[in-house]
Write a structure and sequence with these properties.
Mean pLDDT: 80
CATH architecture of the domain at 125-262: Orthogonal Bundle
Number of helices: 13
Low-confidence stretches: 1-10, 313-344
Distance between the termini: 31 Å
Largest sheet: 3 strands, antiparallel
Structural class: mainly alpha
CATH topology of the domain at 125-262: hpI Integrase, Chain A
Order of helices and strands: HHHHHHHEEEHHHHHH
Strand content: under 5%
Helix content: 40-55%
CATH class of the domain at 125-262: Mainly Alpha
Radius of gyration: 24 Å
């Protein structure tokens, strides 16, 4: 039997586990976020130990110490990873300040590195339809895949949200799905008619898998071939296989279908605030990344609507564009999601 690991000596001075417990209880932090917080803080503690300043408490750490730690990873880490680590430090120190465990907050003096925001890979409409409407080889699990792609593209769910869905959270009659997103926040997302039909076609196969593998009480909507809940990692592998089978040259992740959903909604004239609600973004600035993908559509809307952009002074005044005075929120913390264990689809 493997021995239980000893509790770290630095835990009383660096209350990492207490911090994680608070984030889970008070902020509803997801398991992925908690794993990222833990890994970041443990990485800092390991660096402090290697730098022979491991005996320092959080109050004795300066922003220069934190900058040195981040600088040690600058060559090997993506900018988004460094931003996440800074976000972790800020959140951790605010937690300590709030509870009177630390008087200073050196993380507030750290500057987020500028992120060159790469354009996400998306499918065009024809490619999305080719993936979803692909004629399968008659395999029962092809019906599951079709339902998943319909849901990701038709409703814009995160892949983790889709994999976490239970059957009871889907209302096929009313055309809604209850989604539990980041921070355990629930939102209602509409289902397209083709998506509802695809899920209905999948349900008898799902029931047969549950019976075959004696998975009584299984609540997951999407199952693997053994009747267990399908993992995020398996979905990533499946979409790559299906894109190849459909002859689609663009290779995307499941998250790319979410981007495709938002991009095509924006191209179709949907309001950015409405897309924000559907995607479950806490911040409009997060949703605004999709404007980079639809610049042509935005420029066309500008040319049609802005009085200074009209080419012909004799044209009638276009319908005014709705103006919004809502403040733009800070971006969500860029927490990267660790991969799930390998699982057969």
């Amino acid at each position: 039997m493997r021995d239980k690991p000893a509790e770290r000596d630095d835990e009383p001075r660096w209350p990492v586990e207490a911090f994680l417990t608070t984030m889970r209880a008070e902020r509803g932090a997801s398991p992925q976020t908690l794993r990222a917080y833990r890994a970041d803080l443990r990485g800092l503690l390991a660096w402090l130990e290697a730098s022979e300043i491991g005996d320092r408490t959080p109050d004795q750490i300066s922003h220069k110490d934190l900058r040195r730690w981040l600088g040690s990873m600058a060559e090997s880490s993506a900018v988004s990873t460094l931003c996440r680590k800074i976000s972790t430090l800020r959140t951790f120190y605010r937690h300590l300040n709030k509870r009177g465990l630390c008087a200073s907050n050196p993380a507030e003096l750290l500057t987020l590195p500028r992120k060159g925001r790469p354009l996400a890979a998306v499918l065009n409409v024809d490619e999305a339809f080719a993936l979803i409407d692909r004629e399968g080889a008659g395999e029962p699990l092809e019906a599951r895949n079709k339902a998943m792609w319909e849901l990701l593209y038709g409703s814009g769910l995160r892949v983790s949200e889709m994999a976490g869905l239970d059957l009871g959270e889907v209302d096929l009659e009313e055309g809604w799905v209850v989604v539990v997103g980041k921070g355990s926040k629930e939102r209602l997302v509409p289902l397209t008619d083709p998506c509802a039909a695809a899920i209905r076609a999948w349900l008898p196969i799902r029931a047969a898998l549950i019976e075959e593998h004696a998975k009584v009480g299984q609540e997951a909507l999407f199952l693997n071939h053994r009747g267990g809940r399908l993992s995020v990692r398996s979905v990533r592998r499946l979409i790559g296989d299906d894109l190849i089978k459909a002859g689609v040259p663009t290779q995307i992740s499941p998250h790319g279908l979410r981007h495709s959903f938002a991009t095509h909604m924006l191209d179709g004239g949907a309001d950015l605030r409405g897309i924000q609600e559907l995607l479950g973004h806490a911040s409009l600035s997060t949703t605004q990344q999709y404007t980079h993908l639809s610049l042509g559509s935005l420029m066309a809307a500008y040319d049609d609507a802005h009085p200074r952009a009209r080419r012909d002074p004799g044209e009638g005044r276009p319908n005014p564009v709705e103006r919004r005075s809502d403040p733009v929120e800070e971006p969500e913390d860029p927490v990267e999601e660790p991969e799930d264990p390998v699982e057969e689809p």
